[in-house]
Every structure is written in structure tokens, then in C-alpha cells.
Structure of Cytochrome P450:
Amino acid sequence: MSHRPLQDAENAQLMYDILRSPDEHYDAVRRFSSSLILSVVFGKRAPRFSTKEVTDFYHVQHMSYPPVDQVPILKYVPEMFAKWKRVCREVHDLQHNSYSGLLEETEKRGFENGCYMETILRRAAEWGLDREMVGYLGGALIEGGSDITSSFTNSMILALIAFPDAQRKAHEELDRVIGRDRAPEWEDLEDLPYIRALYRGYKIPKDSAVIINVWGIFHDPEVYNNPEIFNPDRYMESEIGTKKSHENDIGQRNDLSFGGGRRVCAGIHVAKYSATINAMHLLWAFDFSPSKNAKGEEIKPDVWDYAQALSASPNPFKCTIRPRSTQHAEIIRQRFTEATAVLKQFEYGEIKDAA
Ligand code: HEM
């Protein structure tokens, strides 16, 4: 099943949420990615960031970073000397309750909306999956699909306020190709080389825990010019963003941030579409600039301020976001109204906020 209509509809809400409450841009992006993946996997969306499933998920995601992942021998340390073991137990219980609750809702819903768990539940016995496995299969997709996808878009916003030249070039291209009388469409990407380059210009933050050393690879000054700089132009000059001398290196890819080999990201297509439409629409509609302090001076954005958690996301940051014209704002409102029919298919029963 193609998830694109749902991705477009969730993107319409993201744009509307930022238009309405620009100061809450960070959580608006996190709501987008969680709601999308909850709908794709369990068929239930999250219309607000405060929805229980979303807040539970982010709470768990940022609770633990167990050292045993790096040093496996630590698993032999008795629990009384290892506080992280108790935190892990708590994480397990919270995860378990959240995933089995979602699974139960999928079973009891009384109608199908094409979500992934419907297929898994139908074929669980045939594939030898017990209930715990089915719940965690869904949970693993929620984990893969939420935090890291929002980290991608939030990192882009942080980079835009830190590197205004990149934003200026993107605005110039979008004004020329799209104008202000309509919103961009996926098909426009072909005529938007700078937007394509900008989304590839994503930076993996310093000190990220990754198995393939993506940070090291993307920051090798032998291969990339000024690797510390967010410079989408590098992808205009070369398809893979490297210096000319490395263009033909074996195995070079411009999507290495999704991993490689047999453990390559299972959600790569969903993720690329989300990251691209978000980049294209956010830039088409808004001006991003650093916030100002009480004296009216710009607060310099810190592009290295990242959280150490299961995946590395920028810590919440402030910025000023303004619609680029009243026409842009009107089209955002229209798109959100038009998205209602798609979004409604994933809303049912009581939508609970966290206590
Ligand atoms: C911009 C967004 C994303 C990025 C940068 C990303 C990146 C990655 C990377 C680097 C890995 C490989 C980790 C390793 O080497 O073991 C991975 C694995 C995975 N990703 Fe993603 N991901 C993104 C979005 C998603 C989405 C939306 C989903 C769900 C639909 C997803 C589901 C998964 C799963 C299930 C795995 C584990 C695959 C396996 O081990 O067999 N990811 N992702």
C-alpha cells in the first residue's frame, strides 16, 4: 500500500500546526513523524503531540542509553550496582504496555484501514509469531520511524537558521519554480535541484552512536570539502556530494545515513518521502530565523547541541518562523482542510491525552 496520501495529509497538518503555533515547531515535527508511523503500523493517528501514545513513546525513548550496548560484558554486573538495569526494566514495562495496548486496539477496532498490523495479525500463526513478537514487531517500527525521522526535519530547521545562505537559495528556487499561488507537489522535485540537494545535505551529529561510522565517513575532509558546513551546493556539484576526485569511489551512495547491507533501514522509502516533502513545504511556506534575546540581539544557534539517546536528535531549540506571505498562509489552511478526509480514516474512539 502506498502511504503517500497519508504522508501528504500529515504534512498538511504539520504546516498548519507551525502556522498556528510557530513556537511549538519542535513538537509539531515530532507529532508528524509519530502520528504517521502509528497510522502506518497500528492504523491509529495522533492528532496532538500530547496524545498518550506519542508522549509515552518519547518518554521511553529518552529514558535510557544503557552502557551494555557499547560494552556487552557489563551485563554481568549485578543489578544492585547497575542503576541502568532498573531503568531498563522500567523501559521494558512501559514499552510492553504501550505496544500491547495498541495491538489490542487494532484487533478490536471493528473495521480495517489497511495498516501493517492487520496483515501481521492475519498471518502471525503461519509465520510462527506469538503475541509478544507481533507487538514488538510493531513497536520496533514505531521506534525506527518516530524519533529519527523527526530528528531529520528538526536538524534541517536548525541548519536553516544557522546557515541563512542555504535558506536564501532554496527560497529563490521555490519562488521561481512554484510561486505563491499553489503549494509544491512531489512531481515538482524534478525542477527543484537545490531542494533535492538540501535534503541530502543532512548532517549526522557529532558523537552519534552508529554501527557504520556514518559521522566519520561524512566528515572526512579527504572526501568532502568543508564537511562541517551545511552546504547543499555540494550535491549540486556532484551527485554524491564528494570532491570530484572521489566521485567514482566504489560503494559511494548519497543515502548512507540510512545504513547499509542487510540491516539497511526498513523504512527508507517512507522516510525519504517524509523528509523531502517536509523540506519542500517548510521552505516554500516559511522564513526561518534565529530567535532574539531581550536586547533584540540574535541568539546564535548551536548546531552541535544534540541529545544522547537511542537516536541522536537536536535538543529543543528556539527560532522565529513566519509565513512568507498571506497567500502562503491561506494555502496552508486550505491544504489542511482538504486533508481531513484522509486523516479521519485513522481517527476513532477516544483519543487520550497523557495524564
Ligand atoms: C530520516 C529517517 C531515518 C533514518 C536516517 C534511518 C536510519 C536508519 C539506519 C542507519 C538504520 C540501520 C541501523 C543499523 O546499522 O543497524 C535503520 C534501521 C532501521 N530503520 Fe530506519 N531510519 C529512518 C526512518 C525509518 C522509518 C520511517 C522506519 C519505519 C517505517 C524505520 C525503520 C527501521 C527499522 C525497522 C530498522 C532495522 C532494520 C534491521 O535491523 O533489519 N526507519 N534506520
The chain has a mean pLDDT of 86. The radius of gyration is 21 Å. The first strand starts at residue 286 and ends at 290. The first helix runs from residue 4 to 20.
